[in-house]
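Before relying on records like the one below, remember that each one covers exactly one chain. Contacts with other chains, cofactors or solvent are not represented anywhere in the record.
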Amino acid sequence: MTEKYAKSNLMFISSMLIFGTIGIFRRYIPLSSGMLAFARGLLGALFIYGYIKLKGKRLRGKIGLKKLLLLALTGAVMGINWILLFEAYNYTTVSVATLCYYMQPAIVILLSPLLFKERLTLKKLVCAALSISGMVLVSGVFEGVSLRTGDFRGIVYGLGAAAFYAFVIILNKKIQLEDAYYKTIIQLMSAAIILVPYLIVTESFNKISLKLPSFLMLLIVGIIHTGLAYVLYFGSIAVLKAQSVAILSYIDPVSALVLSGIFLRESLTFFGIIGAVLIIGSAMLSEINLKADVFVRN
């Protein structure tokens, strides 16, 4: 393994570990999910732009009106995706919300014949079926969890976030832009800008107050979990093999489950553990021998 490849591996793994802790930080930020999503998009975009300027790089790629509108739409969908994910963290455990979020591969698999005219193979059907079975186990229906509980509401938000994340991936397939940083800056800034009208309608800005620890955590979510994590992510995938990217991506949900257990004292039930194995395992299986797509992550 060359030094460059080893460094890229470390960068990618670091980005996955950072993404895996965002649910923990969300628990300690007393802001609405909309406000947090806005701050994340704005701070992340500014950090990446500052990084590019500091490195003396130039943003490359011509953007026509159609492509710009698609990027803005993707940013809007990303913003909604974040809001739903942050709400999922509010209503259920980080572990369950994360597993709901990783239903995204199953959603893409089931939609691919309609959207991309791709053949739905037996392997894809098996992966989707395993993932859905895992989600049923994680939901707690076999353990008497009521459909009216907060946990169930969190599951619905988590699955909604997964659906919008799948939409982000689908839109990104239609946007060809050479510079991944350029693409990400536009999408993050679009997410922030498009959330402004929503915040004006839903927020009482005079009631917003953050103590120093919460403010620092907000900065960490915007700068570290978004800006730095994306810099590490995009800085490594150009060197790594697509298969490595696909498999190593699952450090994110696994670390989220482990770290939420350590720091938040969360735990999965017996059925939940089986469901987690089915969801993450089927998602990994679906990536084997498939090209890893480059897209903005959670």
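The chain has one domain: 3-287.
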